[in-house]
Amino acid sequence: MASFKLPFFLFISSLFLHASLAEVVCEDLPPDVCAFSISSSGKRCLLETTLDKNDEVEYQCRTSEVMVERMAEHIESDECVSACGVDRNDVGISSDALLEPEFTNKLCSPACSHNCPNIVDLFFNLAAGEGVFLPELCEALRINPRRSMAEFISSSGEAFGPGPSEAELFEEEAPAPAPAIESESESDSDSDSDSLE
Predict the structure, then answer these.
(1) Whole-model pTM?
(2) Mean pLDDT of successive 10-residue stretches along the chain, which has 197 residues
(3) I need a surface site. Which of 60, 62, 139, 185 has the fewest CB within 10 A?
(4) Does 106 fall in a domain?
(5) Which domain holds residue 37?
(6) Domain co-membership, 68 together with 151
């Protein structure tokens, strides 16, 4: 009789487990858990702002067109949000945060990079869209933080607008260029034009 009770108990508990796991629909998520979540269809959720009838800003969770491979029905944990330095109030999906050394340090830290595959995958793809390989950026950041950020800015200049290149960042250290020397052909042509007058 005891052997019958255990399988029956497991069957009943599995029913409760399936009933408690509802489908994740971005539009049904509250704004405070929207960012960095993934719907049941495998699409990323993103936080957007809209104006209500009183012209006040309100936040809504929407389904993006960004698909995530091998991950669905995921609501990011508070531990990963904290470890990776992301903000649940971030509106939209952007690579701009990668330009901030403090954020990139947290993203590259073992607490984030080894434990939070969802956030790492998101920023890996955002960095790749800017022509940057995130593991190389993290490695460069460990070796020389200023230089790695300069390289990222210069490699992603088209996406972020005209940012300073690495050469421009270190331009102050370069000696001033020598004054231009007028060539003989230019001086001859000037004297010819003087003689014509």
Answers:
(1) 0.64
(2) 44 38 90 95 94 89 93 95 93 86 92 96 93 89 70 53 36 41 48 48
(3) 185
(4) yes
(5) 23-75
(6) no
